[in-house]
């Protein structure tokens, strides 16, 4: 099957190679879910949101839950009464806000 060049809003299926839309989660030809698309994913994480959650709600681990680090988030919840997670959340929030976008995306993207 010969295909013409793809447009900027198109990509190739990871399984069969047919041209599909970039935002397609499933290839219409072969039915395979495309890499990078997850139904549980809320999309790309924002460093500003993570930073503000760390500063304002870091004591209960909100920033950890937001970034998908559920285990550490639960640990923050367990020890919130010691105020140690609040201090760590403040520090981490500042770190998130001062990171470059590329570094944040590479680490938490």
Q: For the terminal residues, how far apart are their CA atoms?
A: 36 Å
Question: Count of DSSP E strands?
Answer: 2
Please trace the helix and strand order, writing H or E for each element.
EEHHHHH
Strand numbers in spatial order across the main sheet: 1-2
Number of H- or I-type helical stretches: 5
Basic shape = elongated
β-sheet strand percentage:
5-15%
Could you describe the largest sheet, including whether it forms a barrel?
2 strands, antiparallel
Walk me through the structure.
The protein has helices spanning 47-57, 62-66, 70-78, 84-98, 101-108; strands at 10-12, 19-21. The chain has 109 residues and is mainly alpha-helical. It folds into two domains: 1-41; 47-108, no CATH class.
What labels would you give this structure?
2 domains, mainly alpha, two-stranded antiparallel sheet, 109 residues, 44% helix
List the helices and strands and how they pair.
Blueprint lengths: L9 E3 L6 E3 L25 H11 L4 H5 L3 H9 L5 H15 L2 H8 L1
Antiparallel strand pairs: 1-2
Helix pairs in contact: 1-4
